[in-house]
Amino acid sequence: MTKLCIRILGCGDAFGSGGRFQTCYHIDSTESATLLDCGATALVAMRRFHVEPARIDRVLISHLHGDHFGGLPFLLLEAQFVSRRKRPLLIAGPPGIRQRLHDAQEVLYPGSSQLNLRFPLEIVELEAGRRARFGDLAATPFDVIHPSGAPSFALRLSWRDKVVAFSGDTEWTDALIEVASGADLFISECYGYEANAPYHLNFKVLSARRQELRVKRLLLTHLSSEMLSRAGDLDCDVEVAEDGMLIEL
Predict the structure, then answer these.
(1) Annotated catalytic, 37?
(2) b/e 78-94 (16+ beta carbons within 10 angstroms → b)
(3) Which position among 57, 67, 169, 184 bears the catalytic label?
(4) Angle between helices 97-108 and 72-81 (to 10 degrees)
(5) Contact, 105 vs 73, CB < 8 A?
(6) Torsion angle defined by CA atoms of residues 200, 98, 159 and 24, in that order, rounded to the nearest 10 degrees
(7) Nearest one of 182, 183, 188, 192 to 227, comparing CA atoms
(8) Architecture of domain 5-241
């Protein structure tokens, strides 16, 4: 039996609502350590919650907005100059991630994309609907509805007998039913309570679709101020993410 330990390093929106860090999840399978998204505040959150950056084997990115991938330039600089990393690092994300990461590095720290890294770095562009294997992890991306200048994905992640599904950011799409089906945990964005923010989910939609998702646990994340104000009185079988929360599967 596989055991997963999931530390929520950030479950906030792009605007810091509720003082939460931006999206980042640390998933430890005992065999390897994975970051699921790496928002701009990810490295700060790792320090806060005692996650060692040098132990991360791979980073999976759902889409190319700063609150989901903007921590990568900082993570790479920390690996080079602080951790003095030697072990390989893999970054996998949507088509275009290689160029977008390069551009972000050059905007934030000119010349940093040209460093002679002391560790092997591999960047992989995922393809919607095609399962990719990285060590003990298998990842399948699904197209969702969230303009980001590149394809945006929901991700279905499998470690042998354990499955974690992640919506990324999206409005409702029936692809989420396939992404989440039978998962041990479905991490779903829930930006609003009933307000219809474009390209995002709200609680009313998720609660109406709850039975279709067929997941063991539904964890709400990426909450706006409106949603945070209603988080204590939800009438559905859900959990609400908190920065620092530890989930064991």
Answers:
(1) no
(2) bbbeebebeeebbbbbb
(3) 67
(4) 70
(5) yes
(6) -50
(7) 192
(8) 4-Layer Sandwich (3.60)
Residue tagged 């600089």 (tokens): 77
- Tokens 């000119």 locate to 110
Tokens of 2: 């596989």
Mean pLDDT by 10 residues, the chain (249 residues): 95 97 97 98 98 98 98 98 97 98 98 97 98 98 98 97 97 98 98 93 94 95 95 84 98
Q: Take residue 219 and report the two structure tokens written for it.
A: 């964890």
pLDDT at residue 121 in the model:
98
The answer to pTM > 0.70 is yes
pLDDT of residue 100: 98
72 in Cβ contact with 91 (< 8 Å): yes
Task: Provide the pLDDT for residue 200.
Answer: 98
Residue 242: C-alpha distances to residues 60, 106, 112 (Å)? 21, 32, 33
Domain ranges of the chain: 5-241
